[in-house]
Every structure is written in C-alpha cells, then in structure tokens.
Amino acid sequence: MNEKRASDDGADSEDANRFGRAKEFMGDSYSKASDAVRDGYNTVREKVEDVDFEAITDQVRSYVRSNPGKALLISVAIGFAVGMLLRRVGSEDEE
Predict the structure, then answer these.
(1) CA distance 75 to 82
(2) Within this chain, do residues 67 and 40 fall inside the same structural domain, yes or no?
(3) pLDDT tens-digit readout, 7-46
(4) Rounded Cα distance, 29 and 37, in Å
C-alpha cells in the first residue's frame, strides 16, 4: 500500500512539474504575442498619424473631376464586390 502511495506522490510531483513548465511556456508565449501586437499597433498608429487625409481627399476629388467615367466604373465595381461579399456572409449565417 505504501509503495502505491509513494508512486502516486511521484506522479503528482511529476504532474505538478509538467504543469509548472506548461504554465511558464504559456506565460512566455503570451508575453511575446502581447509585445508583438503592441509593436504592430504602435507602428500602424504612427503611419496613420503621418497620413494627410485632406491631401488624399483633394487628390481623389481632382481625379474624379478629370476622369468621371473611370471613377463611376470603379465605384460600381467596388459596390458590386462589397455586395457579393455581404451576400456570401449573409448566406453563410442562414445555413
């Protein structure tokens, strides 16, 4: 009986050791992932802050005024693509 209890204690300590290693591994993985996401967020935020949206808006207006046909076709194509994507998403929800 004591031999079984001794082997159970050994198994418990081995399980605790495995759990401790797994917990440490997950903590390290979480820390690395968190740092990567934080760095990516900061990079994107800096790039967005550098964008001059007024200049882009002026460029788009200028292009539309000089090429109304192309602008209309581009907007129709984008609208069609968005409509197809939304229809697919809606049909997947119904299934």
Answers:
(1) 11
(2) no
(3) 556 678 888 899 899 999 999 999 999 999 999 999 999 9
(4) 12
